Every structure is written in structure tokens, then in C-alpha cells.
Amino acid sequence: SHGSGGGAPGNVTRTIAVPGVGSRSYYLRTPPGYTPARAWPLLLALRGGSAPASMAAAAQQVRRDWSGWADAQGFIVLAPVGNSTQGGWGASGDGAEIGAALDDAFASYNVERSRVYLWGFSAGAHYGHALALDNTDFFAAYGVSAGSLEQYACTDDGSYPPTCAALLSGAQPKIPVDIHLG
Predict the structure, then answer these.
(1) 0.85 cut: is pTM over it?
(2) At residue 99, what are phi and psi to the nearest 5 degrees?
């Protein structure tokens, strides 16, 4: 992305303007070796459901949970908060918030756009399926833990959203996925 360089490596809280939502914060981690001289992979990490008052803390925890791996393997972690009044994902404005956070990270850090990944847990996994499968040309791969494909991405009863068979057969290009349930 050849962003403007970003700050020193470590944890950062960034504030963005989200159209239709207002001012929002998201949490970012750059590994110790981060330098803007080269492009870095980025992981969009979606928290699980939590009480609305704890959503920011849950996003920070996701960033913390990924920090050791990100530091060792050399990638940036972006953890958005979301704006659901119920504490999950899928509220009006969540997509705009994630898009604005990604745009801000691309403008501020040197992100390797061909290596943008998505991971979600529980409610973040439900929403992550839909986000990844609706943007297969954007994400290099995605992984989810404890999240159902049928929650937001598709359904098998023929109502909206589309059937899972139609969604999966029509997703182009095909992207790698890692799913953990149980």
C-alpha cells in the first residue's frame, strides 16, 4: 500500500471517521521489526460477542491474543470494535467501520495488499464468513473459530441470504479457509 509509514512498532489505538456512524477507534499492532521500507501482511481480527460496554476491551484482547504470533511471524494485526448495540457483529455500519479502518491502515502503514487475511471468533466468525465470501478478491485467506457459515453468509432454507450451495459455488476466486468448530 506504500502508506505514510506509521508509528513505532507496538500497540496503537487509531481514531477514524466512519460515514454514517461517526468517530470510531480501532486497535492495531505492528511487530517489533516493522519498518515502512517494505510491505507487511495484515490480519483483520474480529472479536467474539461481548456486552456492548466491553466491545472495545474485547477488540483489545483479540489484538493481545494475536500479538505474540504476529511479532514472531511478522504481520500487522488490526482489531476493529464494531458498533452493534447487542455486542455482536452485523449491525448497520459494521462494514463501513471495517472498511474505514482498513483504508486508514493502508494509508498509514505499508501493507502488502495481496496478503490481507481475516480471522474471527464466535460472533466475529459468523460475520467473518460473510465478509470473506463477499470479498474473495480482497482477502488472501480466512479462518474462523466457533462460527457458523449459516449465521450471516448464507442459509439452506432458500430465504435471504442466498443458499450456502449458491454462495460457495459462486465465490470467485476461491480462497483458502480454515474452520474450527466444536
Answers:
(1) yes
(2) -60, -45
